[in-house]
């Protein structure tokens, strides 16, 4: 998969008017301007999201205390940055802040080899490869992205909202994951023990009657006593009670502090997004739909209602279990004739008896239908059903009988269908309502991606060359072609090679980011002539084939060359190619492409102007290494060279002055010079090597990076 990252500054729309405009018009203009340019105030109006506990899932560390500041910084970034993704699936996707999809371009033929979105958002350059009959045809496309350019402030504001919403959905999902982890399987022991008791008992008395008899008369049947003393046990009952209290308390805290906070923040951002969609002049062209956002708001409201219902169930269960276990614990101690603590050995009041009796009546009814569905006769534990990711209805939904408000809504057809009330799903789990909410929000936010994607039209198509080389997927990641966007001059550059006379000649194609504008010297080929050693002034002349090249910065290209007649171990060169040598205004008219862009470029090599360059500096002989690939970073002042077998790496510091002497030895000299050079070659440390190995191993398991100590004599 090819990835391109673009960072553009968020420009603000300028509003101006005639000098004769009235004072009221100026006032209105000022109000609109301040509203339109207003910063996101969610950090002022919403409380800070609590960090997720560390003792749960590893995924919760995404929102841990260490990372929360970085996420807040990302969500508060006023600049729009877009991650562009493309592969072999026939489409290209654009993600705002690398998190939320804001565009999807379909109909891309072949596999994307390179992608580059211009910093002014006017065009997207794409290089694709279509395989036919054992060979691949590589082409260059330029897509118009005028909708992104024309509505940059609106896209930026909308993208920030989308990113907030995407992050909050992830936060809610992780909170629910922590809640599921807080719920323990031990809580199901009561259900399983009672089910086994039903299957093994010989009497016709129901389980509920057995416990009622123990409650009223203080005596248990022999079978119930066996269940309590041999299977449940006093120690097991105490542990079960503690587990239920601990688990329910943890879930309750997660619902109140995390799930509800995230849901309320999500509701706020969706409401703001709905307000943006109501400004149709600005946001309707981007596909923002107010009706769809309203559906999303309603779905979030239903999720909040279900979370509140879970809180009520937890609160009720904690009270019921506490009273039930206290009574049963004392009863079991008396069966064993153990000492009962004075604080527990209290006479039960009529209220206490009634409370436990109601609990037994509600929770200890045998349900044959439930056994057919879940393999158990009882559902004493009511919280776990809300956390199961199932489409089935709740085993024990809340009892709505006697609820006056619920009955009132059910009897009123107007209120039942009112958009002012959030729909309620009493028979569905929290997971089900959450998935429904996510699906509705995804559908709501998918429309802008479709609208923006369809607005990107192919404006230019240039077939480049036919490639018969077959390389594995790992090497394709490092291979030509290479795209670059010059933010200063608003130009797209494409580096690629064309096979001519068994040599790969580097070509540079450049196009203006604005489709309507042209650029001189749009296509030029580079021939590397000679290289002069700085100290000895000896000239190295040979025939060179370009292996790889990448832009080091806007003004320089880093190139790896192969000397086709040089001896092994001294046949690779690292070159810094200044573009000022390529594009010379004095003789630019002599280097104009005379062919046509509608025909494949490798079929008209003679029409491509070729400039031969000679170097007296800015080059280095790469000894004892079959260098094949290069990556440069002008901001970090480094270049990295990778061997053809993907096992050897050399890193060079490139921050040097104009006297860049890369190699002072000649081909006639077997012994290296002892004089130092001004480029610094680094050897990766063991920890860095391990990181490199892990990264490449994840890409291709058979690749192992071998880091070698360089011979000091070869580093001269």
UniProtKB/TrEMBL annotation:
Looking up Pfam families in the UniProt record yields: ANAPC4, WD40_APC4_C-half
State the UniProt keywords alphabetically.
Cell cycle, Cell division, Mitosis, Ubl conjugation pathway
Domain of life assignment: Eukaryota
Question: Where is the Anaphase-promoting complex subunit 4 long domain positioned along the sequence?
Answer: 140-338
Per the record, the GO terms for biological process are:
anaphase-promoting complex-dependent catabolic process; cell division; protein K11-linked ubiquitination
According to the entry, every stretch annotated as the Anaphase-promoting complex subunit 4 C-terminal half WD40 domain falls at: 483-653
Taken from the UniProt entry, a GO cellular component term is:
nuclear periphery
UniProt protein name: Anaphase-promoting complex subunit 4
Whose protein is this, by species?
Sapajus apella (Brown-capped capuchin)
């Amino acid at each position: 998969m090819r990835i391109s990252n673009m960072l553009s500054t968020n420009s603000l729309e300028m509003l101006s008017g005639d000098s004769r405009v009235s004072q009221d018009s100026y006032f209105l203009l000022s109000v609109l301007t301040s509203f339109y340019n207003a910063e996101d105030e969610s950090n002022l109006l919403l409380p800070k999201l609590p960090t997720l506990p560390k003792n749960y899932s590893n995924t919760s560390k995404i929102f841990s205390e260490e990372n929360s500041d970085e996420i807040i910084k990302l969500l508060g970034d006023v600049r729009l940055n877009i991650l562009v993704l493309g592969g072999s699936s026939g489409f290209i996707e654009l993600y705002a802040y690398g998190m939320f999809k804001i565009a999807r371009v379909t109909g891309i033929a072949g596999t994307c080899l390179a992608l580059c979105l211009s910093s002014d958002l006017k065009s997207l350059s794409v290089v694709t490869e279509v395989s036919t009959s054992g060979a691949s045809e590589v082409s260059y496309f330029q897509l118009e992205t005028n909708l992104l350019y024309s509505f940059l402030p609106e896209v930026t504001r909308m993208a920030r909202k989308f990113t907030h919403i995407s992050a909050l959905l992830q936060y809610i999902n992780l909170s629910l994951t922590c809640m599921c982890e807080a719920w323990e399987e031990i809580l199901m022991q009561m259900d399983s023990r009672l089910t086994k008791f039903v299957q093994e008992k010989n009497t016709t008395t129901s389980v509920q009657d057995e416990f009622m008899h123990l409650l009223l008369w203080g005596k248990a049947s022999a079978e119930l006593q066996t269940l309590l003393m041999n299977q449940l046990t006093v120690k097991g009952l105490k542990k079960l009670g503690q587990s239920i209290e601990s688990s329910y308390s943890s879930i309750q805290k997660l619902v109140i502090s995390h799930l509800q906070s995230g849901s309320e923040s999500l509701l706020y951002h969706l409401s703001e997004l709905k307000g943006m969609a109501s400004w149709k002049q600005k946001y309707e062209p981007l596909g923002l739909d107010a009706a769809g956002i309203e559906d999303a708001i309603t779905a979030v409201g239903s999720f909040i209602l279900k979370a509140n219902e879970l809180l009520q169930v937890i609160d009720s269960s904690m009270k019921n279990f506490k009273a039930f276990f206290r009574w049963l614990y004392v009863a079991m101690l008396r069966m064993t004739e153990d000492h009962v603590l004075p604080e527990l050995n209290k006479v039960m009041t009529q209220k206490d008896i009634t409370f436990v009796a109601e609990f037994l009546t509600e929770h200890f009814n045998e349900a044959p239908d439930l056994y057919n569905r879940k393999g158990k006769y009882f559902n004493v534990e009511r919280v776990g059903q809300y956390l199961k990711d199932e489409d089935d209805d709740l085993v024990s939904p809340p009892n709505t009988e006697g609820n006056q408000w619920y009955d009132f809504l059910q009897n009123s057809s107007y209120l039942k269908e009112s958009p002012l009330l959030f729909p309620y799903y009493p028979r569905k789990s929290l997971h089900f309502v959450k998935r429904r909410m996510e699906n509705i929000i995804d559908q709501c936010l998918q429309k802008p991606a479709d609208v923006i994607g369809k607005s990107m039209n192919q404006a230019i198509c240039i077939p480049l060359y036919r490639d018969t080389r077959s390389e594995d997927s790992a090497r394709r990641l490092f291979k030509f072609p290479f795209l670059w966007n010059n933010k200063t001059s608003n130009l797209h550059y494409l580096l690629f090679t064309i096979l001519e006379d068994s040599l790969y000649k580097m070509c540079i194609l450049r196009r203006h980011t604005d489709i309507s504008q042209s650029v001189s010297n749009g296509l030029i080929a580079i021939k590397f002539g000679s290289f002069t050693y700085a100290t000895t002034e000896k000239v190295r002349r040979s025939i060179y084939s370009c292996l790889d090249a990448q832009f080091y910065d806007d003004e320089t290209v880093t190139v790896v060359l192969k000397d086709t007649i040089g001896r092994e171990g001294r046949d690779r060169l690292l070159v810094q190619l200044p573009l000022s040598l390529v594009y010379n205004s004095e003789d630019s008219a002599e280097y104009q492409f005379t062919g046509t862009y509608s025909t494949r470029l490798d079929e008209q090599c003679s029409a491509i102007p070729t400039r031969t360059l000679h170097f007296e500096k800015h080059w280095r002989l790469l000894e004892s290494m079959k260098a094949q690939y290069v990556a440069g970073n002008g901001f970090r002042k480094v270049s990295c060279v990778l061997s053809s077998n993907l096992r050897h790496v050399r890193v060079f510091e490139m921050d040097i002055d104009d006297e860049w002497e890369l190699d002072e030895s000649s081909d006639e000299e077997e012994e290296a010079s002892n004089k130092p050079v001004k480029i610094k070659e680094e050897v990766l440390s063991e920890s860095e090597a391990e990181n490199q190995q892990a990264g490449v191993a994840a890409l291709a398991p058979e690749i192992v990076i071998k880091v070698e100590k360089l011979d000091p004599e070869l580093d001269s």
